[in-house]
Amino acid sequence: MSLLTTTIAPTERAAATLRPFDVVPSATEAADRLLRQALFQPSAVAIMDALAAILVQAGVPLARAMVGYELIHPLIEGQGVIWRRGKTVEVETWRHDRVDTGSWERSPFYKMEVEGLLSLRLDPTDPAVVAAFPVFRDFGDLGLTDYLALRIGFDGTDDPAQQSGIVVSLSADRDGFQPEHLVLIEQLRTPMAIAFKLANERHLAETVMETYHGRDAGQRILSGRIRRGDGEWLRTVIWMSDLRNSTGLADQLPVDRYLSVVNAYADCTAGAVLAAGGDVLEIIGDAVLGIFPVRGSNSDTDAAQRALTAALDARARLARLREKAECVYTRDIEFGIGIHWGELVYGNVGTPARLNFGLIGPAVNEASRLESLTKQLKRPILVSGAVAALIPREWEALGPQDLRGVGRPIQVFAPA
C-alpha cells in the first residue's frame, strides 16, 4: 500500500483559539466552537484538534479520533486525520496507485456501507469483535474499551451510499462513552460535516491552483492577487525546455499515444524542475517554463545551481526512460533546455475576465531562443553568460551567439 504519513504540530494560532471552557460545554457551545475554528482556520489538522479538545473538555474519555474523506487530487484518493491523546495530529494519505490489501472489506466502515448504517458502536474488548475486525487487535494493548463510528454525508441526506462526506471513528478508554457523551456526539454530526467540508474545499482550491497554475502562482491567486495589473518585479533564473519533433509526432500518433509521449517528456522536464525546488509556471503543449526565484536567503547562485541541477536531472531521467521504454516514439524523445537569468514582471495579464499569472519581459524570450539554439549547436543544455558566471564549475564556452528576435549577441555556455 502506498501510505504517506506526516506528523503536523498544531499551529500557535490554532492553539490560541482553544481556550478551555469554564464549564462543561453545551451542545450549542460545542458546535459554535467547532464552526468558529473552521471559519478561522479551515485546516483539517486544526479542526481535528478543536474537535478533540471540545470532546475532552466535555468529559469524554477520548483516546483516539479519526476523520477520513475523499480528495479530488491527481495523486491522492483520500486522507485520514488522526488524533491521539498526548500526541500531535497525524495525516495519512492514500494514493490512487495503492495496493489493495483487502483491509477495507474487514473494517467497520465497510460493514456500515453494506448494511446502510449511519453509526456503529462496538466493544473492542470482545474477542468476537476483534476476530471480525482486525483493526481492533491492538486496541487492548492501548487500553481502549469503546468504539463509535459515524458516516456523515455532505448532501444533507445522510445516505451511506453517497460518496461525498466523512467517516468518523472515536475510541474511548476507562468507562467508555456515557449516554450524555453519545448525545453530544450525535448533536455534533452536522457541525463536524460542515467543518471538514470547509477544510476539504480549501484543500481542493489549493490543489486546483497548484496543479493548473503552479505552486507560487496558485498561492498568489488564492491570496487575492486576481486583478489585472497585480504583479511585481521578480528576480529569477528562467528554465525553458521544448520537445523536439512534436508536430511530427502529433501527425503520426493517435491521440492517446501522443499524450503518453508528451507526459513522459513532462515527467523528465517538469518533474526535474519540481524536484530541484523550482516552480513549473507553464506547460504549453510540448514546452515547459520553469522558474527558480531569488527570494529571502536564496541567492542568485543558489537559484542558478538548482536550475542546472534540474537540467542535468532531466537528462538523466531521459536516459532512464529510454532504457525501459517499450514504445519506439518514447525511446526517441529528445529535448533541449535553455537556462537564463533576469528581472521580470511577474503578474496578471489578459482581459479583465480572463487572466494569466505569468512572466513578462525580454528575458523570457531570450531563454526560449537559447533553448532553440540547443539543436543548432548540438548541445542538450545551454546557459547564458549571466548564469554561467553564477556557478563555479567547468564550462564549455561557445562564444557570443545571435538569438532570433534579440538585438544583441549573448555569451553562451554548455556544461563541460
What does this structure look like?
The structure is a single chain. The protein is α+β, with helices and mostly antiparallel strands. It has 2 domains: 3-208, GAF domain (Beta-Lactamase, 2-Layer Sandwich); 214-415, Nucleotide cyclase, GGDEF domain (Alpha-Beta Plaits). It has 14 helices and 15 strands. The protein has helices at 12-16, 27-40, 44-57, 108-115, 127-132, 179-187, 189-213, 215-222, 246-252, 255-275, 300-324, 328-331, 362-377, 385-388, and strands at 3-8, 62-70, 76-84, 89-95, 119-122, 144-153, 165-173, 231-243, 279-284, 287-293, 335-351, 354-360, 381-384, 395-401, 410-415. Strands 8, 9, 10, 11, 12, 13, 14 and 15 form an 8-stranded mixed β-sheet that branches. A 7-stranded antiparallel β-sheet has the order 1-4-3-2-7-6-5, with helices on both faces. Helix 7 packs across helix 8 (215-222) and helix 10 runs antiparallel to helix 11. The longest helix has 25 residues, at 189-213. The relative contact order is 0.09.
Which word captures the global form? Answer: elongated
Structure summary, number of beta strands: 15
Architecture per CATH nomenclature, i.e. the level-2 architecture of the largest domain: 2-Layer Sandwich
Order of helices and strands: EHHHEEEHEHEEHHHEHHEEHHEEHEHEE
Helix percentage range: 25-40%
Compute the CA-based radius of gyration. 27 Å
Provide the β-strand percentage band.
25-35%
CATH class of the largest domain: Alpha Beta
Intertermini distance: 43 Å
The CATH superfamily title of the largest domain: GAF domain
